[in-house]
Amino acid sequence: METAWTNQLSVGNAVIDSEHQNLIVMIDRIESMIRAKNASSLPQELEQFEHYLCVHFINEEKLAQAVNFPFGKNKQEHQFVLKEFQRMRNELLAKKGVWTDDAAKHYSNFLSEWMTSHIVREDMLMKPVLQTHDYKFWPGSKEGGANYAAGSIASLYLQLFGTLTP
Ligand SMILES: [Fe+2]
User: Fold this and answer.
1) By Cβ atoms counted within 10 A, which residue in 25, 82, 121, 147 is the most buried?
2) Which residues contact residue 125 at a Cβ distance below 8 angstroms, ignoring those fewer than 6 apart?
């Protein structure tokens, strides 16, 4: 299932919207690889995705704190999806490109369905608060946002949950 970005998915903040757009592009790429049973590029692609997703979650939390949005429920959801993502990644990588079309459908739907529900059901709750700020608002700077190169995945988990894994 392909997820397409529309203005309906805007949560009212430029940095978060652009990160969501990037995540959707990454998910489409991963889904194509899963459908094509292309196991050679998948490990690297999944690692990049996990890294970017952690940075995105760190940024969302930073923004929520800056606008005084209670973030507990979102944080739980982030931890849950990262755990599920790791489980799916480990399963997929263990299969080394040998999986059925049904399994391909199952794995590829997981990320796009999660992405839509992450934006529509979780992040959208912040929209009324974010709309009281400038669309380009970012705590402490005019630019800010995800720094893809920042830190190892373990150090990102440490920042997010105080542990080395989700
Ligand atoms: Fe998000």
Assistant:
1) 82
2) 69, 74
